Amino acid sequence: MTERVEPSQPDLADLTIGVLGGTGEQGRGLARRWARAGLRVRVGSRQAQRAVAIAHDVAAGLPDADVAGDVNASVAAVSDVVVVAVPYDGHAALLATLVEELRGTVVVDVVNPLGFDKQGAFALAVPEGSAAGQAQSLLPGSSVVGAFHHVSAVHLLDDALAEVDTDVLVVGDDRAATDLVQRLADAIPGMRGVYAGRLRNAGQLEALTANLISVNRRYKVHAGVRLTDV
Ligand SMILES: NC(=O)c1ccc[n+]([C@@H]2O[C@H](COP(=O)([O-])OP(=O)(O)OC[C@H]3O[C@@H](n4cnc5c(N)ncnc54)[C@H](OP(=O)(O)O)[C@@H]3O)[C@@H](O)[C@H]2O)c1
After folding, report:
1. Which residue has the least CA distance to atom 46 on ligand 1?
2. Whole-model pTM above 0.90?
């Protein structure tokens, strides 16, 4: 049987990874882990000054780090891969302003549309089926991938943790893009990127976070996900 040859993938070290909302816990945590892995990272914010300050924190103690901060639109324009790490209620409005900047870019949506009430967290209904689906409909010229929904920001930001022990379920419709995002997960020690289906299946992953939050509250932990037999 002839072995299938996958299209060649870029060297991660040649890529610029932008993080929109990179000043928040999740974006900052991912940025920090990728900076520690020697990758080039750009931190995005609605305010340039805030982005620059957080970029400084992300690079702390890493003399060779290539980390800078700027407003979200500038970060989107210069990055090869762009992570969207803003709250769901600001998600659609932000992406609608970045259609051109994100054209041709792999967009990694980590957003969990969740509500909270007395019973804890619950999944919100999203007209497009998921936040990632919403991103894809707003950004027809981009390849949207859903990933990192279940990764604890507390663990990402804990420098004492050498490894972040978790699988990252990756969904998307573009094989090259999901392969790339799996490799971005693999670049963080302890993490493993696992392909988990097409973008239409992103909603279940986003919703599962509500269950993980319930686990966290009951057991006082920062639970992640590990698949067996893969
Ligand atoms: N925290 C976690 O453990 C975790 C885990 C997995 C996934 N997530 C997902 O990751 C996303 C970010 O989570 P987070 O905890 O980092 O959130 P966050 O701290 O509340 O927000 C992240 C950043 O988003 C920007 N932002 C806030 N409101 C905005 C709006 N209306 N429009 C545009 N930008 C806005 C802010 O940056 P500026 O003010 O600097 O612009 C903020 O620092 C969420 O969608 C969450 O569901 C979080």
Report:
1. 111
2. yes
